[in-house]
Amino acid sequence: MNKYFSVDDKIFDIVQKNSGVKDFLISNGFEQFSNSDIFEKMSKNVSLAMALKMKKMNVELFEEKLVSFLDSRNSRVDINLFKKNVGNFDINVEGVLPCPIRIPLLEKFEEWLDENKAKYNYTIGHDLKSANLGLDSIIEKVKMGDENKLPDVLMSAGFDLFFDKKLMGQFLDNDVFEVSNDEMNSDFCNDKIDLRDPDKKYLITGVVPAVFLVNKNELKGRKIPKTWDDILSEEFEDSVAVPMGDLDLFNALVVNLYKDYGMDGIKRLARSYMKNLHPAQMVKAKGKNNSNNPAVSIIPYFFTQMIQGDEQIAVWPEDGAIISPIFMVAKKSSREMSQPIIDFFNSEEVGRVFSANGKFPSTNKMIDNGLSEEQNFKWVGWDFIRSNDIGALIEEIEKVFNESIAN
Predict the structure, then answer these.
(1) Which CATH number fits the domain 91-207+325-379, given the four candidates 3.30.420.40, 3.40.50.720, 3.40.250.10, 3.40.190.10?
(2) Can you tell me the distance from the alpha carbon of 32 to that of 26, in angstroms, rounded to the nearest whole number?
(3) Nearest residue to 95 (alpha-carbon basis) of 127, 62, 50
(4) CA-CA distance, 246 to 406, in Å (whole number)?
(5) Rounded to an integer, what distance in angstroms lies between the CA atom of residue 405 and that of residue 401?
(6) d(Cα 305, Cα 244) in Å, to the nearest integer?
(7) Do domains 91-207+325-379 and 208-321+397-406 have the same CATH topology?
(8) Membrane-spanning regions, if any (predicted)?
(9) 193 burial class (0-12, 13-18, 19+ CB within 10 angstroms)?
(10) Got the DSSP string for 281-321?
């Protein structure tokens, strides 16, 4: 049993004790709870475990996902800090930012707005939330199918919103958005990788690399894994913590593994899967000879800064750290007014915040990300993105992953 609830508790009791759980349930398979009458009747009579079994959902997996959500919610900084109303401005900037760099980025943005407010004869509003809160409000606007309801500039990590043909696909196919960056940091523009969008619809400002956190006390005679293939091997069955609480990173992880290994790679990841922890918890999971701790955790590069002691080491995969890019799109219709904002978020000043403050390597050409020649990246590539419905693919991958865990 976790510290927040028991899966045998009534749903109503879990919701009453834990803020945000009802919205989490609605966004994760229980859409009917948006109807107050249905929620009132069902939640007081049905336990969480019973409800999940009725929907044929994996109870253990869902519990871990909900616990990770609550851990993130309780540990984050004040989510209302810097929040602005949007909708009544000439230009609206919306989206989500990685938690560790959100506050310093917004501080820089506020400074820039103050310094330039007399320069532009139009108003700018923004609502850039912490990434762990998700994109539900923006997705609702996207579903309306009305270009005028969308923000002028939209930022987000991950693949599920921008590359889902049922969501942003309708606008991108109609050339509603246009943005580009012809000059890019050599870390991301070389003979191995090129993050520049050839269709000039997306701009990538930085990336979240996924690396290995290895608990040497839990290896039990096994060699330290060096590649993604090592992680997927039988040797690491039931030994790897997967970042399912970080959906952006998880989606980037499984899409990349699918590209390289097909659905067999997803099944192998499910075989290796041990538990789902927030990255901060993964770093703390270092008890000696504790079989409840994973031997390897897949975590954002940022969290390697928290490692203490000799029992844990960070490993940058030899075949490349899988990246979850931080994307930006901008409306073509308001491009002239939004261009200064695009330039700001693609500036050297912001690049330093990405790279130095949060270990999120920046794509700005002037930034030294402090990476060695061996620290390469694994990226699905624009050709793969264009030739697949990424949204539908992620749904199919998650289905196979969940079924493989349940078996």
Answers:
(1) 3.40.190.10
(2) 7
(3) 127
(4) 21
(5) 6
(6) 21
(7) yes
(8) none
(9) middle
(10) HHHH---TT-TTS-SEEEEEGGGGGG--SSSEEEE--TT-E
Of 4, 6, 93, residue with least CA distance to 50: 6
Calpha distance 206→401 (Å, rounded): 28
Q: Where are the domains of the chain?
A: 11-57, 91-207+325-379, 208-321+397-406
First to last CA, the chain: 22
Q: What DSSP letter does each residue of 89-129 carry, written as one string?
A: SSEEEEEEE-HHHHHHHHHHHHHHHHHHTTT-SS-EEEEEE
Q: Which residues contact 92 (CB under 8 A, 6 or more apart)?
A: 86, 124, 125, 126, 127, 151, 152, 153
Please tell me what DSSP assigns to residue 211: E
Task: Please write the tens of the pLDDT for every residue from 20-64.
Answer: 898 888 877 787 787 787 888 788 888 998 888 877 677 887 887
Q: Under a CB-based contact definition with an 8 Å cutoff, are residues 193 and 361 in contact?
A: no
Q: What is the dihedral of CA 220, 223, 226, 230, to 10 degrees?
A: -70
What's the CA gap between 366 and 370, in Å, rounded?
A: 12
Alpha-carbon distance of 34 to 279, in angstroms, equals 30
Which of 11, 97, 105 lies closest to 351, judged by CA? 105
pLDDT at 357: 55
Can you tell me the distance from the alpha carbon of 121 to that of 131, in angstroms, rounded to the nearest whole number? 31
Q: How many residues does the chain have?
A: 407
Element (H, E) at 187: none
Residue 232 has pLDDT above 70, yes or no: yes
Residues with Cβ within 8 Å of residue 54, at least 6 apart in sequence: 46
Given pLDDT bands bounded at 50, 70 and 90, which one contains residue 74? low
| Topology of domain 208-321+397-406, CATH | D-Maltodextrin-Binding Protein; domain 2 (3.40.190)
Q: Give the Cα separation of 395 and 130 in Å (integer).
A: 24
